Amino acid sequence: MSDNACKTNLGTHILVFPFPAQGHILPLLDLTHQLALRGLIITILVTPKNLSFVKPLLARHPSCIKTLVLPFPTAIQSFSSAPSLPPGIENLKDLPSSYIPAFLHALAKLNEPLLQWFESQIRYSSSPPVAILSDLWTQDLAVRLNIVRVAFFPMSAHNLSVVNYFLSNLPTREDCKDPNHLFTAYGVPNSPVFPIYQIYPSHHLYADASPLWKIFQHNNSLNKASWGIVLNSFSELEEPFLNHLRENYGNHGRVWGVGPLLPPIDHHRKDSSAESRNRGRPSSTCIEQVMSWLDSCAENQQSVLYVCFGSQIVLNRKQIEALSVGLEQSGVKFIWGVKEISSSLTDHEDIEKSVLPTGFEDRVAGQGLVIKGWAPQVAILSHQAVNTFLTHCGWNSVLEGLVAGVQLLLWPMINDHFMTAKLLETDLGLAVKICEGADTVPNSTELARVIAESVPQGDQEGKSRPQMIRAMEMGKMGLEAVKGGGRSFKNLDELVLELKKFNVKRTIYSL
Ligand SMILES: *[C@@H]1O[C@H](CO)[C@@H](O)[C@H](O)[C@H]1NC(C)=O
Ligand SMILES: *[C@@H]1O[C@H](CO)[C@@H](O)[C@H](O)[C@H]1NC(C)=O
Ligand SMILES: *[C@@H]1O[C@H](CO)[C@@H](O)[C@H](O)[C@H]1NC(C)=O
Ligand SMILES: *[C@@H]1O[C@H](CO)[C@@H](O)[C@H](O)[C@H]1NC(C)=O
């Protein structure tokens, strides 16, 4: 790929700061790739341990993309109610969600060294950055420097619309106490309705003066104040919500759907390079092993179920048991990506949770493959043997599933998963929900039945559910959207064009 666009070093330069959680970092880097293709000069801010995420992109765009590596700030003081950050953690995937406040607190301390870096850029560089693209925190900094900020949302436009509604119209404490109370997001298309736990997973923390509460509100107001908004979504999937944001978020209409953001390669098996394969790591199983296992299933095309609940969700023991029994009884071939908890948190009770029943792996040898740790999801999903994806409805997983043209079975767990499940199942009719809730233990007999019905085995013809057909159509539209001429492709062009108007000469920095 040509990297010539940036050779002059006089182009428009931006700083990209990916929030170091897996679900955030990868789509933002995929977006960065698209921006580099369009000739922006880009500096990516990373902390040392996550530098490896960026390496493939650096190799791909040696003259457009540089890194700024700042040490991860040590968090001394944190909120009294929340645990403080264990040393050596630079990525949310290593942490249970109770650590989020401490993590955010530590991150905010990057502001000072970042400001110093800007100072030296403005002084000594022929093209200091004219914009910051980030998913967190940097709006203050952009205001201080008098440059623009582009906020990136790795979630759905649906989620952002609903979040924004409830942050602007705080539910009362009284209503939150009632588990049966339903909250309506008025004005959001279809006026979606949710019980409190689906909107705010830790609503008991949201007593009036809770620090987390304030973080969310503050974050939202900063994002609203940004110059532009970029979402990993596309018109065909979320037009009403994208339009809603254009009218209700930020008052400037600069809301661009640029998804589905894909890894910078054609992700068919033959082409899948080390780049898309090793995006997470570490993992118990190497990609070659996974691919050859899938190859061995491919005689009966499209016979494999892929089960994965993302990089944050940890199933409890009962859920693991129910799922393993369900999978085994279904007789369906499967790959199951099981999350492993970082060994730096060994004394945490979560470690207890992620253990498979004794003998399970041996019993299902031949039927299933268990991957502990990171699973090469994009490569698995796009393998021809894979027919169905049981997903927790994380936004990235959903997009990856759609693009790969597989059937989606849903088990929404927390946060925006419920909204996404509703969007996919009820509004768009392209997926089937089979379980719901982070603590729910499914009936394994039922689970086995649904799975066996969904995934065709042996010579059996797969029943083509209308949902599956619609999902495949949506996936195709997604791929069209990011090709030349597609809406997302055009939105990216427009974003870059707008950013190029902020050239160094016109930007008056203030320090
Ligand atoms: C990112 O940093 C964390 C440390 O918290 C580390 O566990 C993880 O492996 C890093 N990711 C990569 C790809 O280097
Ligand atoms: C803050 O906003 C960003 C989008 O800019 C979002 O990705 C993130 O989840 C939000 N975090 C919190 C703590 O609200
Ligand atoms: C929206 O999505 C983000 C990112 O997944 C999540 O953290 C947040 O909880 C969601 N918001 C709501 C209100 O569910
Ligand atoms: C699970 O489902 C099966 C079949 O529908 C039913 O016979 C059984 O009683 C259920 N088990 C439990 C514990 O509910």
Automatic annotation (TrEMBL):
InterPro entries: UDP_glucos_trans. It comes from the Eukaryota. The keyword Transferase applies. GO terms for biological process: flavonol biosynthetic process. Pfam families: UDPGT. The keyword Transferase applies. Keywords: Transferase. GO terms for molecular function: UDP-glucosyltransferase activity. Belongs to the UDP-glycosyltransferase family. This is Glycosyltransferase.
